[in-house]
Amino acid sequence: MSSNPSIDPELRDWIVAQRAEGHTEAALRASMRASGWRDDAAGAALAAVARLPLKAAETPRQVSAKTGIPAQRAALPGPDLEGAPLYLDAGDRRVKVLQTMRHPSVVVFGDLLGGDECEALIDAARERLARSLTVETQTGGEAVNIDRTSEGMFFERGEIEVVARLEARLARLLNWPLEYGEGLQVLRYRPGAQYRPHYDYFDPAEPGTPTILARGGQRVATLVMYLHEPARGGATTFPDVGLEVAPVRGTGVFFSYDRPDPATLTLHGGAPVLAGEKWVATKWLREREFV
Ligand code: PD2
Ligand code: ZN
Question: For atom 11 of ligand 1, which residue has the closest CA?
Answer without folding.
Answer: 282
